[in-house]
Amino acid sequence: xxxxxxxxxxxxxxxxxxxxxxxxxxxxxxxxxxxxxxxxxxxxxxxxxxxxxxxxxxxxxxxxxxxxxxxxxxxxxxxxxxxxxxxxxxxxxxxxxxxxxxxxxxxxxxxxxxxxxxxxxxxxxxxxxxxxxxxxxxxxxxxxxxxxxxxxxxxxxxxxxxxxxxxxxxxxxxxxxxxxxxxxxxxxxxxxxxxxxxxxxxxxxxxxxxxxxxxxxxxxxxxxxxxxxxxxxxxxxxxxxxxxxxxxxxxxxxxxxxxxxxxxxxxxxxxxxxxxxxxxxxxxxxxxxxxxxxxxxxxxxxxxxxxxxxxxxxxxxxxxxxxxxxxxxxxxxxxxxxxxxxxxxxxxxxxxxxxxxxxxxxxxxxx
Length: 367
Fold this sequence. Notes:
Layout: E1 2-6, H1 14-28, E2 32-37, H2 42-49, E3 53-56, H3 64-77, E4 83-86, H4 89-100, E5 108-112, H5 122-131, E6 134-137, H6 140-148, E7 156-158, H7 173-180, E8 187-192, H8 201-209, E9 216-221, H9 227-236, E10 243-247, H10 252-255, E11 261-264, H11 274-281, E12 285-289, E13 305-307, H12 312-324, H13 326-343, H14 346-365
Parallel strand pairs: 1-2, 1-4, 2-3, 4-5, 5-6, 6-7, 8-9, 8-11, 9-10, 11-12, 12-13
Helix pairs in contact: 1-2, 1-14, 3-4, 8-12
């Protein structure tokens, strides 16, 4: 198959990484992949650096000029394209409208990465129910949102972003701490994510400040627009000796094994956060909020501890519980790892997406 991905602008978080990871996997399976996106989108540079075929296409705004340019490209390449996978609202609309003008429209699969509730009006219902051959969500909670606006369950599939277990896997804690420059004797909490307000770092810092134990420390891995605010909060809360701001790291797989507990305190609109899946793959006990589709992977008391969003008290209590109970940490780490390996690997994702794409393409050819 020739799979074309379109993205208006998915930011710097898990969305472009999902597209790249999936695309590389599809190429390994013998498929052709092309990515259409604006040069300003982070995906543009990241995909090219990964060796993928990228076509610069203005997709950020729904206007006539962008529609005409996309339509021209689709018409010129239609015979070689089997399916289009769109990832944002603007590019989905542009593909859907372009399809209306083509004698042989390209089957459109829409992937919804964020958990923001879609508008329930006739245009949105037409887009998802009629213009799209299939809807993919990155979590079951997002899939239910589609059902709530009338998309049949048979027309949607939840496909969480799979983890590359060759990259993220259990490793020696002592060696990991030496690599990361973290003290061996302390109890390390870790959070790996983009630094933006909805990722919940501020809630986590307040929870940590409420724990009177200097040996419980926190490593924050990542960069983003919320960095300066977090640095000031660390000072205001008197946590300078207990929190390490590690910045962006190209080797997060070396950091997760250094943690005693990994956290995802997010109250963001997302599917299943990549950091959650990566911590489970690294066999680390995990505490996460019920944001987006996180509950698909973190089953409370079985594969981790799941708490309500923005609940500072629950977060503090969960941290103390896992600090005090080494046997529970071990149990959650092992059960989380086992569950990840059977449900959320890269191969699970590729199998599911390949089925979605081939079914959409076959139905189009049989019309």
